[in-house]
Amino acid sequence: MTMAAALFLVLSCLMGVKSSYLLPHPDKITQLPGQPPVEFQHFSGYVTVDEKKEKALFYYFVEAEIDPLSKPLVLWLNGGPGCSSIGVGAFSENGPFRPNGQVLLRNEYSWNREANMLYLDTPIGVGFSYSTGASSYVTVNDEMTAKDNLVFLQRWFLKFPQYRNSSLFITGESYAGHYVPQLAKLVIELNKKRKMINLKGIALGNPLLEFTTDYNSRAEYFWSHGLISDSTYNLFTSVCNYSRYVREYYRDSLSVLCSRVMSLVNRESSRFVNKYDVTLDVCIPSVLSQSKIIAPQRNSERIDVCVEDETVSYLNRRDVQKALHARLVGVRRWDVCSNILDYDMLDLEIPTISIIGSLIKEGIPVLIYSGDQDSVIPLTGSRTLVHRLAKQLGLNTTVPYRVWFEGQQVGGWTQVYGNLLSFATIRGASHEAPFSQPERSFVLFKSFLDGRPLPQEF
């Protein structure tokens, strides 16, 4: 702990302050370019996780709008693997601002209304996170990422000691279905040696939890939403299912059969339909490309974009990078998803649903939620996995499957098992639920933090 941090703790105790800072913090953001006036503080910078290899992870931290020291701390991780939590989560989903031309607009449903939000660009090579050695970007895997994330958390608390005892919730979406449970497992193991991190729960949106179940649920989703024909559905479930196709794709052993089936699926479902929200028009922000890596396309085309990508433009501004205390190392420009990271894509096949089970056994509440318009990691696979896990753990249903409300409209459906394992859908939401349904996602988030059932009436 630095002398400044130690002095802060002493002064806080003596004076009984409720604000988060008495002394200037080196990572404090004075003001982002185009930022509207706000009363909360925000910070960004680097935490070195490996001095020898000079590996540094970049974070963006937004304090809660009101009385931050009394509010929980929420770590948010985006997926990919290889996509930026700052660019996607903070500036496109549940953060306080969204870029609009030269200015930032306030997000009315920012999650920092209820919590202190910590966004982390992980692993190394993602967003503004970097290593001075290119070898650190080669064959990065889940195990390395989890260890780096744990080191980050431990060292981040040295920067912000006043949050060390705060209730911590680890959250994320997509491939964070790997990142979040694996990090939570390491936190539990660390706490058994010495209680250091006050982990209170995890929440995962449209997560990859079990390769075969999650990926093969895509066929039924396509068929039931009219994206493919009966005959193609039969081929997609018997001749070559989606998990087989992805296995072959990442092993450079794509068979003629799978190639033909996927060509047929792609032709019928059409490149003019957004697979991450099957009801959304084709003109969408490219931040949704975070899902592209876990859903490979044979021609490697990126999502069709017909509008300027506001986030990419904003984060590539020199004045913005200076305000964020960010650096570009080894790359010429900031990208939503890393083009220098060589991730071990065979880690897709590592099941993390069993880790979820071990966390529940330790008494950690878990929420799995699904935007119901996502065909990449469909709700049907997630619901199947949650129900199967509840049965394996012997958890009885405590909240039967029912609708929940946001305002006077149905926000989605939910079911709770044993008061520790919850499943919920967000009606009308995409793979990135807080982007497409911000108000409903906020209601879900607040209920989870408060440990309350989702509203069952309006």
UniProtKB/TrEMBL annotation:
Subcellular location: Secreted
Keywords for this protein: Carboxypeptidase, Disulfide bond, Glycoprotein, Hydrolase, Protease, Secreted, Signal
PROSITE patterns documented for this protein: CARBOXYPEPT_SER_HIS (PS00560), CARBOXYPEPT_SER_SER (PS00131)
Example of a GO biological process term: proteolysis
Domain of life the protein comes from: Eukaryota
InterPro entries membership: AB_hydrolase_fold (IPR029058), Peptidase_S10 (IPR001563), Ser_caboxypep_his_AS (IPR033124), Ser_caboxypep_ser_AS (IPR018202)
GO cellular component, one term: extracellular region
Enzyme class, broadest EC rank: hydrolase
Enzyme Commission number(s): 3.4.16.-
Keyword match Signal: yes
Annotated signal peptide: 1-19
GO molecular function ontology, one term from the record: serine-type carboxypeptidase activity
Purpose of the protein: Probable carboxypeptidase.
Family: Belongs to the peptidase S10 family.
Protein's recorded name: Carboxypeptidase
Organism field: Sesamum indicum (Oriental sesame)
Record gene name: LOC105158213
